[in-house]
Amino acid sequence: KRMEDGDLLLSDDKVLPTPAPQRDFFPMSIVWCPLPIFNCFIPFIGHLGIATSTGVIHDFVGPYTVHKNQRRLGFGSVTKYYPVKPEQLTIPSDDSVHTIEECWDHSIEMSSQKYEGLIHDLFFNNCHSHVAMVLNRMEFRGFRHWNTFTLIIFMLTH
Known about the structure:
Number of helices: 4
Helix content: 25-40%
Low-confidence stretches: 1-11
Largest sheet: 5 strands, antiparallel
C-alpha cells in the first residue's frame, strides 16, 4: 500500500520511506558515486556506501574513518543507488532486534564501528568491504559472500 510522498506502508503499519533522489534521500539503499581521478581511466570504479532506514549514509573513506551524512558520500553526491527491499533480507538468528529496519540499522552500525578501527586498503579493506559486511550479515538476496568484486559487478548490472 502506498502512502504520501512515495512511502511504503509495511504490514505492521510502520511507514518505511522510499528513496527520493531529487531530495538526495536514499533510505535503505546501497549508494555509489564516482571517484574523480579513477573514473578518468576506469569509469566503473567508484565509491560505495550504505544508508540506514532513515537515510543516513555510512561510507568507509579512509583509515579509522567512516563518514556519516544524510545526503552525500565522503567523495561526492550519490549518482547511482540500489534501494534494498525488506523481503531481500534475513534477520540473523543472533540479533535481538524485532524488525528488518532495526536489524538493517544495527548491522550498519556494527560494520561502521568495526571499520572505524581499521586501516583503509584499496583492494581488501575498502568501502565495498564495509558494505559487504552488512549485506553478508543480513544475507542480502539470499547470498552471504559479498565482497569488493561481487559488489562492483552488482552495481554495474543494477
